[in-house]
Amino acid sequence: MNPIKRAPFIRSIAAAAGKTSPDIEYDEIEEAAINTAAPPSIEEAEAAGQLILLAEDNVTNQKVILRQLNSLGFAALIADDGEQALEAMEKNDFAVLLTDCHMPNLDGFGLTRSVREKGHNAPGRRLPIVAITASALTEEVAQCYEAGMDDFLSKPVEIAKLHGALKKWMPSTPKPSVATAPPPTVAADSPIDLSFLKEIFGDEEETIVEILKEFVDPSEECREEVQAAVKTNTLEEVALGSHKLKSAAKSIGAYTLAEICEEMELASKKGDWAPVKELAPKLNTEMSEVVEYINTL
Q: What are the DSSP calls for the chain, one per residue?
């Protein structure tokens, strides 16, 4: 069971935003604007052919990406894994599928293959599928396209780049208006760089604190999974736990923690125990500093 997974079957919510992989370039990336008007309802978005499906098992990533989508004026349904996404497609028509690559039950690659095999399409056209993942490795990007995906975005998602992806793949993308996104603030000397969350949530400090505190328990479980796997010499579990923790850490701006996790994940996949064992105590120390910081908020 994925300890980050928490949301119920499928929740409808409004949302929008984004960031593409450094491997992907768009002809034009405009400065994103924050939508001050209420996003459309699920029914309105579906009727307009602009309903988005987000398949993502990490609750922190769900909240951040959905808020970004909301700020761009889109409505979306959320699936916690690939199986739930397929169920949602039986009930609704979607304009775009945004999917994480690594999820329980059915991952993004399997989801994409199933969508292509079953012929799920957007109204009148092939359904665009965009990967949103914490890994930007060349091999994983290639795997995305081989599975049948159309595009690739890296976490943490930059709103201007996601907006560019939605403009590319969705007809008649709405124009968010009125207020421009505030510039990122300079991060304090702390284990978390709050500039990313502040760029999304602005001065909504209670929301930022809520997201940070909700990060703690499931991420502590990931840390425990990783440490247990190190003790039992199970590289596959080290890689899995490190990847999950890396994804959540990036979404809250805990970049040093995310870098340690990424190094452990890569070393584990290569079967290299030396760096894994060297990094394990560093993971504990950095995670403790992140949690201690969050607990002071």
A: --TT--S-SEEEEE-B-----TT---S--PPPEEE-SPPPPHHHHHHTT--EEEE---HHHHHHHHHHHHHHT-EEEEESSHHHHHHHHHH---SEEEE-S--SSS-HHHHHHHHHHHT-EETTEEPPEEEEES---HHHHHHHHHHT--EEEESSPPHHHHHHHHHHHSTT-----EEEPPPPPPPPSSSS-THHHHHHHTT-HHHHHHHHHHHHHHHHHHHHHHHHHHHTT-HHHHHHHHHHHHHHHHHHT-HHHHHHHHHHHHHHHHT-HHHHHHHHHHHHHHHHHHHHHHHT-
